[in-house]
Structures are given as structure tokens and as C-alpha cells.
Predict the 3D structure of the following.
Amino acid sequence: MRIDLEARPKRSALREILSPVVALIVAIVIGGVVVAIMGRSPLAAFDVYFVEPLSQSYSLQAIAVKAAPLILIAVGLAFCYRANLWNIGAEGQFIAGGALGGWLGLVTHDGAYQAIGSWWILPAMMLLGILGGVLYAMIPAALRVWLNVSEILTSLMLVYVAQLTLDWLVRGPWKDPQGFNFPVTVNFDPEATLPILFDGGTLHLGVLFAPIVVIIAAVVFSKTIFGFQVRLAGSSPKAARFGGFDDKRIAFAAFAISGGLAGLAGIAEVSGKIGQLLTTISPGYGFSAIIVAFLGRLSPVGIFIGGLVLAVTFVGGEDAQIALKLPGDMTLAFQGVLLICVLAADVLARYRLRFRLGGKA
Amino acid sequence: MRKFMTAAAAAALTLAFAGAAEAAAKVKACWVYVGPVGDFGYSYQHDQGRLYAAKQLGDKVDATTYLENVPESDSERAFEQLARSGCNIIFGTSFGFMDPMVKVAKKFPNVKFEHATGYKRAPNLATYAARFYEGRYVMGQIAGKMTKTNTIGYIVSFPIPEVISGINAFEQGLKTTNPNAKIKIVWVSTWMDPGKEADAAKALLAGGADILTQHTDSTAPLQEAEKAGKLGFGQSSDMIKFAPKAQLTANTDNWGPYYTQRLQAVIDGTWKSQDTWDGIGKGMVALAPFTNMPDDVKAMAEKTTADIASGKLQIFACPVLDQAGKDQCKSGAKTLEDGQILGMNWYVQGIDDKIPQ
């Protein structure tokens, strides 16, 4: 017997909206079975993973703080992926932005260069963060456009370059002179730290970038010619070229948006959450954001929801370790299951399975 | 009958109250690890310490909660979640947790925090670390006796004071038993990367080293030594299972007694923020059984260990000459001060290497 995929004659909007929901349910069921096999109550696990995090103010804040960088990066990735450009290196662009923006935080430490006031520091840090991400994304973009080098390889390899460069900076020239040679920088001044929105909470100003960017991106995709060009360049590059679109410019623009948003996420994380530079500033946001981009099916609103769902699994995963003593790896395994379910549901929404008897067709 | 009922009710009430009081007195202790508990190195040893303390204190503590694999840049939430979930005392075992712990400790003044290997303290944030360098002195002495090629391979992670003081202590020991032997140092810039560590080990073995030691966490270098028929030392935990013919001893972190003592202090209400830096004497550093060596070397190693424990032997007894031949001791001092060892960023005389800057 062989199984064929056959395109469904009509694409149904309802089916496509429902498919990620079904995928989420299937993933939760699979997760529940695994939890049961491990000897814990699946209901208690569901409660800890998905209900408790959503019922307390502090964990809601934690979810927002965790989701914001994922959403920012994933919206940027959506521009690349829709244009059929496979930027895998958002992690590196995140680090480049965090490092370049963070540099200003180090330079202005202890009131330095603040003679004309300190109002300019945070905006300048954010701009430098964006700039760092954009410049870093221009490397794979240029290689791709001018030399036809696979952006998958170059962007991925540049992640390691960024990680090692930051590592070197924090262990070397940027380390805290009073830090006993430990690999940390000084703490930023309050003037270089994004303010916390609620007293005693963790929600910082940078988290607000995410919804703003989502709205702008949604408008760009649906209402502007540029959004149309990006989609067309991805789905049918020949048609785009016939239509007179400059696909090289579109490629550079998509990479710039992607890198810039990753860089913004990086500096928001560094300035809003960490408050200094460390040898590693990302627990893999750039890679998790790829999951988010596909969970959200490359649409800004979908990504917003997808980012929140993934953040819930992170925060809930820690709750599960505390309350149910489930291993931390369970969280990663569950995220993997979720992604596979979403991708499978996506395929099944557009194609149907045909079972044929007999090996040959 | 009524009287009996009242008495029974009173008894039941008393019991219930006693139960409540007991539950309230049960100290909930929680841990945050940077790595997986299954790394058979650093995080594993902390987890062994947790289990040891749980066993020692029995019903008086709930020490079942830990978070593993917590990335340092994302650790603030982990500490806050634990503090909110009712932990009375939280141990953070990695240096990189320092600033997040300072922040969370400020927010939860009633929760006690203990940070391993850091230097920032607060009224509810204590620090603790082990004098790992003491074990390395003994290892240096053993290596001096056992080497035939007079070349010791030393695989190291990052040039922080803990690592530098370890190299210096090893050299101090090595000098006493074999002034001709030399340490060859390879920086791998990672705490845990079996592939990189194995490559460094192979390079050192090919370069003539016949004994390997490491300040990285995986078992790979020791396993390479075993494969090559050479010798080596285990790190953090007793790695004899991985290298039964190669391991001479292992410099192990033994956190159990410390955790027990600190939890007992919480139970007794005597916990105070402090800086603890213990070594072989207090049992925080322990050397695994001396194996794969002749009896006279073993006897020497045992004597040295006992002398360090009793304080008779000072590893950094003055004068301590640096690479340029300058005495680093403060004038009139008998040994280097703790602060000088904690901030060590220079090599002692005899080491042919430059500290990466």
C-alpha cells in the first residue's frame, strides 16, 4: 500500500483556521499520554501547563516577557519566509542587536556622556539594536543576492560567529573591571534600562514593541504594495519579475526587516530584562521564533497567538518541574510535538490522503 | 460520654494543630541548576548534595524541588517562580545566576537565597564556594610522581580566578615532587563540550603528555586518557566508572554536608547571610579513592590530604613567586590572603602559558 497526497479541489478558509486549533488539541492529547506513561496525572499536568500560568498576574507578565522577543523575531522571519528566503540566523541577528545596543549601555555607565541629559540613551540604544540586526542580516542577504550563496547555510553559520564574538567581548574588553575576571559586564544605569511598567513586576516597556510591530506588519502585508511584492516574489518569482518588481531589492528589504526586528528584540531583552551583557543573552529565541513563525502560519496575528502559546509552554514547563517534578526536557519535547502537529495539520488542510493498494502507480 | 467526646474533640484539635505546626515547620528547599542533573559533573554533584541533605534531615525538609537546564540569561523567572511557589530557601548553583538572584532576593525578603561561586551578597542572599584548588595541589603531587614524560596535559575552560588558582595549586604540588615536570595548558572555552574536550585531550596526548587533568565538566578527557593507556584525574564527580584504569583520583565537589548544615540553620531559625569558602578540612572538597598508583605515592597523597585538612600544609605559603619572579605576598604575611586567591589573575612561577585576556 502506498499513500499519496492529493491537493483538495478547494481551499477552505474554515479548514485553515481550524487546523492549528486541531493541531494544538492533538499535541495536548499526545503530551497527556506521555505524562500518564510517566506516572503523573494528565489533568494535573494540563492545569499546571495551561491553566495556572494564565491565572496569575505575575505569570501572565512572565508569559508576555517571554513571548515578546519570540513574536518580534517571528514577524520579521515571516517577511523572509514569505519571500522564500530562509533566514535561519535570527539568533545571530538578535545577538548582534543586543550587543551593539548594549554597548551604548556600557559606554554610558556611571553617568558617562550624560552631560546633555540622559533622555537620548534608551532611544539610541533601541536604534543601535535595530542597526546591529540589520547590518548582520545584510551579510547573508548580499551573499544570496549577488553570489547566489545559500542563505540557509550562511545565516546559520553567522549565528555561531555572533555567539563567539559576544562571548569574547564579555570575557575580554567589555568585562566588569571590578568583576574578579568573571565574564559579566557592569550593570547598566537606570537611564539605560527599559522601565518596568508595574511596580514589583517584570513587564518592561520593550514588551510593548511586539503588539505594535504585529499591527504594523499586518497592515503592511494586507494593504501595501510592498507586502504584495514580498508574497509574489516568494510564491512566483518569475511572475514578480515580469511584473517589473525588483526581486533583489525585495530580498534585501526582507532581510533588513527580519534582522532589524531580531536586533530590536535583542536590545529590548538586554536592556529590559537582563540589565547587562552576559556571554549568552539568548536562550535560543532566534530558533524558537522559527517555530512561532510557522505556528502562526507566517501571518502577524497568527504569530502573535503562536508566540503566546509557546511562551505558555515555557512558563508552564517550569511550573510543571516545580509542581509535578516533570523533567525540563519534557517542555522541549512537547514543543517539538506541537510543531509537527501544526505542520501536519497544515498539510492535511490543503491535501487529502489517498490510500492506494499495490506498490506501483 | 459527652465528656469523652469533648476530650476526643480536643485531642483531635490538638493533633490537627500539631499537624499544622509540623507542616509549617517543614522547610521547603529548592535548587536551580545550570545544566542537566544527568551531566555526571557539576550539576550532578549539586543534586547529589540535595539528595544527601534530604536524607539527613528526613521529614524536616521538603527538598524535592529543582529546576534543571536553566539558561543564565533567562534565570530570573525561574527564581521568582520558585520563590512564589513557597520555597523557603533557594540555592542557585551557577555563577551566571548572580544578578538575577540579587534582583529576586530583593523582591522576596522573606525567602532565603544561596548563590554558589558568586560575590554579591544581601541580608537574605548568602554565597558559598569550595576551595577546589586544595584538591588540585594533591593531584599535582601525584602527577609529579607518576609522569614518565614530565609533561602533564591540563584542559581548562575559562580564565576565571577559580580556574587560575587551580592551575597554580597544581603547579605548586607538582614542583614539590618533580621540579622537571611541566604543565601544558589548552583553553577550550567551554565548561561542557565532550567533542572539544576530547580533541584537546588527543592533542595533548599526541604532544607527549602522559597524564591529563581538566577543569571542564565532561568525562571525555579522562576517557581519552583511558583509551590511550595513559593516566588522568576526574573532575567534579568520581569518574572511575568511565576510566577504571586511568583515574588516579578525582577532585570532587561534596555539597551534601553544607546543604544539610544550612537547611538545619533555617529549621533552627539561625540562618544568616554569610560567605562560605570551605575546602578539604570541612569536607566540601573530597578526593576520590587513590587508584592506579603504587603504595608509596598513595601514602604520600593521603598524608598531603590530611595535612591540608588539618591546616598544617598551606598551598600558597609565602613567598609565592609569580611568573616574573615577584613575590605576590603582602609584606609579613604567612600565606596569600583569601581575597588574593579569590581574585587570582596571575600564574605562579614555573608555568609556561599566558592567561588569555
Chain A touches chain B through 38 residues (CB under 8 Å). Chain A has a mean pLDDT of 90. Residues 12-40+326-350 of chain A form one domain. Residues 1 and 304 of chain A are 41 Å apart (CA to CA).
